[in-house]
Amino acid sequence: MTSQPTTLVDIRGLEKKFDLSGSLLEQISFRGGRFQRKQEAVHALNGVDLQVQKGEALCVVGESGCGKSTIARTVMGLLTPTAGEIHYDGQRIDNLRGRDVLPYRRKMQMIFQNPYASLNPRMTIQQTLEEPIRFHQPDLSTSQVLEKVQEVMASVGIDRDWGSRFGHEFSGGQRQRVAIARALAVDPEFIVADEPISALDVSIQAQVLNLLMDAQETRNLTYLFITHDLSVVEHFGTRVAVMYLGRVCELADTKTLFSSPRHPYTQALLSAIPKLEDDRPNHIRLQGEVPTPVNLPSGCVFHGRCPYANERCRQEIPRLDTTAGGTQVACHAVEERRL
Amino acid sequence: MSLLEVKDLDVRFAVRGGDLTALRGISFTLDKGERLGLVGESGAGKSVAAFSILNLIARPGYIAGGQILFEGRDLAAMGERELRKIRGNRIAMIFQDPMMTLNPVLTIGTQMVESIKAHRRISKKAARDVALSKLNKVQIPSPEKRLDQYPHELSGGMRQRVIIAIALLMEPEIIIADEPTTALDVTIQAEIMALLLELCEQDNLALMLITHDLGVVSQVSQRMLVMYSGRIIEQGPTREIINDAQHPYTQGLISALPQMGEPGQRLFQIPGAMPSLKNVPSGCPFHPRCKFAMEQCELTMPEYVRSGNVDVACYEVSNLIAREKGMQKVEF
Q1: B123 at the A interface (CB within 8 A)?
Q2: How many domains does chain A contain in total?
Q3: Which domain holds residue A259?
Q4: CA neighbours closer than 13 Å in the CB half-sphere of residue B69
Q5: Any domain includes A27
Q6: Would you state the pLDDT for residue A2?
Q7: Per the CB 3.0–4.6 Å rule, which of A84, A86, A97, B15 could disulfide with A13?
Q8: A30 found inside a domain
């Protein structure tokens, strides 16, 4: 790694709302002698700033509904952001259309959570791996394409004979290998992995994680790794961003985050991981549950469950500030040195 | 006598082309107030084991042999009418997905009252009071309100609390929990596991916890069973197995956890995957993935040997023990 990290992907002020209210006619209701128009939306992302440095594995963690998958999909251009910008290597990419997107589609690839859904059941493994190469490098001759497929199959540990078989003939771990091979087939620089190992068994998880780490080393890849499993993050991540209700609440080096978590939510999350050395659950108890992202709480989104919340937390949204230890935290209590 | 004793249980699935053996020679005991963890990866047969205890194996599955003794009576040989007096009453079960186990068109109160009335002659009013007291027991916020709500109005964590309350309705002796927190987030999982543990300790309930998460097992259970391809390959006190696993598969499973690896370094990995029931390897089913495999392993299934307080089915371990004994003799 170079001493001066360069930013590969720059996410600026990203917001994403999913409209719930439907068409205009569905929004209008007649109540108390008056027509009313009611609009509702899920606020999945509420102003996220993240920089992915070249060569790192940036992990985004959080519980269901925190917006981590929405980040993955928006960065990949599968969703259009409501507001904010995404830059790749200095170029804004979220507003590109048609042919202009193509080079970025090749450089950025995605691995999905469920290898049972992400492989086309009617294509053989050979076809699955050929398709992206033929699409992105149409000048290659058939023999060159075949050579590339062989090469990528070998690099992820897929047997050559698998080529003529279909996805359903393989186990979850084997399918995820194929999905990884498909992402690597077009020589990407940047890979977004959305919970790539959550659907797999423990012994298979280790195999796939090792594969992803090998690929990073040999191909100089940069990862945006989305997961809810903190023990994987500790092993795999260079830096970690913890999300809660569509906002980043803490961002730090993996080691720093695990040794000295600052945000009260991060502390609770870390304490909830069941560890082998525990002989009973000893987590920090939070009040209540994650509120709905339809009506966001005012001020700090975490204030309703936070043991340290005061009046300011209920009113004012905390900014992500860098602390002395290098950790970036969005918390009034940390800023005021109450915590 | 143990509260529950499973002896040499065989479960098979009758499919075209012959029977598939899902469980082979499963034996274990569960004492009153004891918490037992059942660990394994998908396809190991943990859920089949849990379901067969209550004789809930649906066709084409059937219990092909063995006994399930609950207070000395064999559940495997019992008629459906008799069994109903035990199932849900003395032995309750909690399933993985709370949305699948609750009826979406009935209120929580209706479902709870229904469960009580299936087992006891009791007025609706009295049944509702019992339901309310159990909801209180699982520490659900504003329990009166929940009785009149539908499952979709509750969050995942609250639904699982309701499920636990339903399991507690008849004050059972045993709770079988099949991956009760797998569908939940980590912070909610921690809450639910802490609650289950608290309830078991309070009422001296026996718990059989089925999970793939070794961390959860070590937090909650006193003894554990490790399953592989329909067999129990190792069983004993949880601490002893976690700290010093004997079977190569258990060792591999523990070392493959990311928390056991050095950050940034390759994780330990067990090659291959769990065999499907259609082609279980001969002898010890783990031998194709095992680095200690020898000729013997391919031929016959190893018998259990005792190492400390742990029972292990592995030739490598039994050879090691035999060698140690030999050494001791020389010393004398």
Answers
A1: no
A2: 1
A3: 7-22+39-335
A4: 15
A5: no
A6: 44
A7: A84
A8: no
Measured between beta carbons, the chain A residues lying within 8 angstroms of B193 are 274, 281
List the domains of chain B with CATH numbers. 4-90+170-331 (3.40.50.300)
Tell me the shortest Cα–Cα distance from B187 to chain A, in angstroms. Answer: 5
Answer whether residue A29 is part of any domain.
no
Question: Using CB atoms, which residue from B215, B252, B253 is nearest to A274?
Answer: B215
Interface ipTM > 0.90: no
DSSP three-state, residue A251? strand
A292 vs B: CB within 8 A: no
In angstroms, the CA B48 to CA A68 distance is: 35
| Residue at A121: amino acid letter | P
- Chain A residues whose CB is inside 8 A of the B254 CB are 276
Contacts of residue B99, defined as CB under 8 A and 6 or more positions apart, other chains included, come to B151, B156, B159
Q: Report the SS3 class of residue B128.
A: helix
Do A203 and B218 lie within an 8 Å CB cutoff?
A: no
Residues in chain B: 332
- Give the span between the Cα atoms of B83 and B89, in whole angstroms: 10
Domain-located, residue A185: yes
| Cα distance between residue B146 and residue B109, in whole Å | 8
Give contacts of B 185-214 with A, CB under 8 A: 185-191, 193-194, 197, 212-214
The CATH number of whichever domain residue A66 belongs to comes to 3.40.50.300
User: Which tens digit of pLDDT belongs to each residue from A23-62?
Assistant: 888 888 888 888 888 888 899 999 999 999 999 999 999 9
Q: How far is B161 from chain A (nearest CA, A)?
A: 13
pTM higher than 0.90: no
B319's enclosing H/E stretch is helix B315-331
Residue B249's φ and ψ, nearest 5 degrees, are: -70, -45
